[in-house]
Amino acid sequence: MAESVGLRSGSVNLTAAAEPNWSPEPPPAVYTCTLSPELVAKAREELQEKPEWRLRDVQALRDMILKEQPNLRTRLDDAFLLRFLRARKFDYDRALQLLVNYHAGHKAWPEVFQDLKPSMVKHVLDLGFLTVLPRPDPNGRYILCLRPGKWKPNDYPFVDNVRALYLTLEKLIQPEETQVNGIVILADYTGVGMSQASNPGPFLAKKVVSILQDGFPIRIKAVNIINEPRIFKGIFAVIKPFLKEKMAERYMLHSSDLRSLHRNIPRSVLPEEYGGTAGQLDMRAWSRLLLDSEEEFIVEFCQPDPLEGVVLPESMLFHGEEASGQDEEAFRGLRSPLYSCY
């Protein structure tokens, strides 16, 4: 495969991602912008990001964290904090809230975030529940392809799908290009029946939406639904109450009309399965890339609880039958010395 997906600060070829000597790198001591002049202009127009003020803005957010959340053991390097500023259009208060929500989501859902690493969701990747298409759309947005019909409730818990989704988003958000351009979701509901539709339920749906909408620094620009069954109205009825109006408006239902899909995602970036010209859908490349990032995720997630002494925002506290004492357990594992900025 000749195409590449941007990871970290540059582009990494998917076929080269399986090199055995790959190891995670520490955050750079000094931030260097990797955006093209075109994306710098786009960030200025759409995100209120001014290059001449960028580091001043990052320092302002860092100062707020240290003053208002002194117990929050979070990364404070420029590159990491920029994700949150960009996701909230450089509004300091909203960026800080997003950062707190980001960590609070980890605390509130230990079934997802405890011991979170790609090897734990290999079965999800092998079944083809999700992948990332190798080519971005004309707006530079990578396309996250979900196929919920590949999951059968008897195979493994639904929460494993959430774990695989979160790991994928963490990988996607690393390059600055994605932070500016955002992503597009393509959800193919082929094969989804009552067993899949009824399994997550409103409680899990609320948790997923809360994390993706209010607790993760990524811009979801469109959600394209294809091959939705008749019962999809019931599925969407469960999800919609938790969606903000702006996000709900970004859902587009195409049924089996590929021409409708192609008006939103051009054929040049779609695989043959969806009427595209980009070859057959290949699930292996993204799976291999995630699995080869094992050490990186161990550093990031298999570590002591970063929220000791922090008051969680009410919006991120999930009350219901699945809330339990597990929420108070600390993450296990040792923090890598590479990430001394925590």
What value does the Rg take, in angstroms?
A: 19 Å
What pattern of helices and strands is seen along the backbone?
A: EEHHHHHHEEHHEHHEHHEHHH
Name the strands of the widest sheet in spatial order: 3-4-5-6-7
Our estimate of the beta-strand percent is 5-15%
Mean pLDDT: 81
The helix fraction, in percent, is 25-40%
Count of alpha and pi helical runs: 15
Note the gap between the termini: 37 Å
What low-confidence regions span 5 or more consecutive residues with pLDDT below 50?
1-24, 306-310, 315-342
The geometry reads as globular
- Biggest β-sheet, characterized? 5 strands, mixed
Class by alpha and beta content: alpha/beta
* Total strands: 7
Write the layout of secondary structure elements.
Layout: E1 4-7, E2 10-13, H1 37-47, H2 54-68, H3 78-87, H4 92-108, H5 110-113, H6 122-127, E3 130-132, E4 142-146, H7 158-172, H8 176-181, E5 183-188, H9 194-198, H10 201-214, E6 220-226, H11 232-239, H12 245-248, E7 251-255, H13 258-262, H14 284-291, H15 294-301
Parallel strand pairs: 4-5, 5-6, 6-7
Antiparallel strand pairs: 1-2, 3-4
